[in-house]
Predict the structure.
Amino acid sequence: MLLAASWGYSQDQKINKLVDAFDEYRKENYEEKIYLHLDRPSYLTGETMWFKIYLVDASLHTPGILSKVVYVEILDQDSKPVLQSKIEVSEGKGSGSLFIPATMNTGNYHIRAYTNWMKNYSPDFYFHKEVSIINPFISDTRDKQQATVKVNVQFFPEGGNLVEGIRSKVAFQVLNNTGKGNNRKGIVVDENMDTVVSFSPDHFGIGHFYLTPETNKKYKAILQQEKETFELPDVATIGYVLEVSEQTESNQINIRVRTNTDALTRQVLYLFVHARNKTIMANAGMFNNNVVQFDINSETLPEGISHITIFDAMMKPVCERLYFKQPSNSNAVSIAANQANYLPRGQVKIDLNVQSQEQVSPYDLSVSVFKIDSLSSSNINIQNYLLLSSDLKGEIESPDFYFSDSPAVKVAADNLMLTHGWRRFRWDHVFDTTANPQTFIPEVRGHIVTATVTRPDNSNAAGVLSYLTSPGKIIRLYPSRSGLDGMQYFEMLDFYGKARIIVQKKSSEDSTLNVKVNSPFSEKFAGRVHHTLTLPEQWKDQLIERSVAMQAEDIYKGSAQFITPEGIDSTAFYGKPDATYLLDDFTRFPVMEEVLREYVPGVFVRKRKDGFQFMVVDKEPNATFRVSPLILLDGVPIFDEDEIMDFDPRKIKRLDVVQHRWLQGSVSFFGIVSFSTYNGDLAGFELNPNAITMDYEGLQLQREFYAPKYESKRQRESRLPDQRTQLYWNPMVITDSNGHAAFEFYTSDLPGDYKVVVEGMNREGKLVTSSTNLSVKESNQ
């Protein structure tokens, strides 16, 4: 009894240590996921790509609360960005658009999205989606010859190991050189070329077979029509084999671990199951007849992917695999149109209803309505991405296939789990939290511009104070002092659109120091397969029609309007000044010294041998600061008083004076003297040549989606053409407490079939997606 109690205590200690280590890792490594709902699957140059961003907590799939900025890029076949933007998100939601310029060539591109925090981890887990872009104005000069189709096959023993004498389930994946599944059959042979087993893919080139490896034998595979052979993994002399099976009737998942040697049966094995960065189960087990069995009730697992790991007595992971639990689809959205067919310029009214088996919060939905053509094909939605694709490395072919309820789909999904056994972390990083240091900080309030300060020998310079500003009518100042790594962080609030930014040090700082503004976009790229875009001849008429429609819309509608966000604080960073002078209200003097001496009593100007010095009167004790104040021109620090004294005061519209000590972060100013020009553009003032001046793109300003209305007979009979193929886009459709929402729009002049796509989620992380078709008929039919 004492030995049994001692054994149980020892196992509990190890289990607790494992759970605690994982929990600590989870706390230090908050994970985010991003999904982008695009308004349509393909684009022509000259069109605008609209998208809704869903940023979620990877553990709960609830709206993300950490990051406030998402980076969106379109990459070409060489993973080089051709379009980039920064999108503001609030409570995990955001929306934006990208205009597709005529400079882009026809081809498949990847759109990817991530946060600054996600840059600490593998780019495989950024959001990725392939989109087709066609340039109708540039001839496709690519070689039309069909490339030779080559195939490759990979083998994945369940749990990771092939062990002598133990029957193992072996999954395989046959891919061609475009990354798509290939359904060629094959055989497995031993070193004597004797056939051991034959295999045939079930779906998308993926399948499985069973193999009992024999002692001292090697195995390889031969595919039909292939001369090349493909090696199976090496067979271990001793080890563990994992087997997971599901008892559908009892909702039980059986996890069995087998070994082929008595030496290993005396060891304790540990089971650890986690999903979405949360511990689901941790247990210890002993061998009985060379088998350890653990049982899990499938009801305890969340929807989507769970990770099953087996540890040996030394807490070393020895077997691992994934398990996929299909969603119950308890939350479904119905789309009801007011009629089946419509005339051109007809009014469409749609009711949305989310049926839920429980009381939930309102749903935040995005809705798109677009014309169906040959390029309209996409099988990625918010549900299959967040529950499946986002937790797997590489591309998942037809992810929507794995969400239908049938025994064949269950088998195919399990094969997929075996061939895509991938996790977001390494176990050695869990036990050693210093192994994966986080370089990038989360943007919790707004966009952060970073810069690196280096010495002439390229070593990092610490403790250097720099100021970042953007000249304008809104006075903003962002000081930052470099850390040991030479990094400076400037948190830019309410910074939208393209603007000029200026980064400079005080003139007294070492002029040999170099300050470089860093790109905020990720420099790491996932190994995504690039699929060649082929345009069959039968698509020609549809592409011409869509191209003409795009050009007509561009001519008659013009470019989309940008909307300035509401609620931007126009107050200067120093708040309400102690004194303000509108210089046009006073006698205009041609010399700045006269202006300050005559009617700015809060500022003393003293002329010394080495030049002018400003001193501000401290309003509270009515004493004068003996240290120069911060001097600004349109928000840009001026460190040489002589330069501002030489500036023409007739170009100055306003002068603010702060007559008290001002603290901003770790920086202290002994008063502030802020000059503002009429246009906020420095009015020709020459900056210090050591200052860094550059155009910088802030957060994207929102474009307004164009949707005409045909409420009157005059509007319906207007001769102004309406060639819209994108009838409706709304990234913010909110249901009421009963799960109901309604919206309306008008059809264009183009007859054809249109698709309505609805996607979204609520605060509890409930996902919904649905689609339906509408038909627009010719007016004379």
User: Anything to note?
Assistant: The mean pLDDT is 90. The chain has nine helices and 49 strands. The first strand starts at residue 32 and ends at 38. The CA atoms of residues 261 and 482 lie 59 Å apart.
